[in-house]
Amino acid sequence: MTSNQNLPYELHNDEGEMFQSMGALVSIKATSEQTRGVFNLFEVLCPPGFSTSHHIHYCEDVAIYVLEGALTFFLGIEKKVAFAGSFSYHPRCTPHGFRVAGESSARILYITIPAGFDRFVKEQQQANQNHMPGTVAALYKIEILGPLPE
């Protein structure tokens, strides 16, 4: 009988696969393989002015914990500012996005459930380098609605 138990591991502050994505510094702390598809965990440093697109995930829920700085969240038709210590849950099939609020960077923990978003982020980075950004989102059942509302 094969065990489905994950193998324990730990990462220190400067560990995990790091790369730039859409101007943010992303560190993958939990990959799909490490969690056997249960979740992904990213630490993201977002510079001032950073924003995501307004988009919908059809396959995963998103949870964001603000470690430093402030974000303006767009969740459905609501717009809220979140400061360090705030948590925001974005259920699948809900339009959402965020932008850094103010003049300082924001550092967040970004969790997706189930896992798989780590693969999207890596493929999206390659697609951006090849000037084909929209195709990968469709493959991962993510709909880009456009820029965030003002």
Task: Quickly list its features.
single chain; 150 residues; mainly beta; Jelly Rolls; 6-stranded antiparallel beta sheet; 3-stranded antiparallel beta sheet; 2 helices; 11 strands; 13% helix; 43% strand
Count of individual domains? 1
The CATH class name reads Mainly Beta
Could you name the CATH homologous superfamily?
Jelly Rolls
What is CATH's topology name? Jelly Rolls
Q: Which descriptor suits the 3D outline?
A: globular
Strand content: 35-45%
Number of strands: 11
CATH architecture: Sandwich
The main pleated sheet reads as: 6 strands, antiparallel
Mean pLDDT: 90
SSE series: EEEEEEEEEEHHE
Question: What does this 3D model show about the protein?
Answer:
A hairpin with a 2-residue loop joins β1 and β2 (24-30). The chain contains two helices and eleven strands. The N and C termini lie far apart (55 Å). The chain is 13% helix and 43% strand. The longest helix is centred in the C-terminal third of the chain and has 13 residues, at 117-129. α1 packs antiparallel against α2 (133-139). It has one domain (17-145): Jelly Rolls. The protein is mainly beta and 150 residues long.
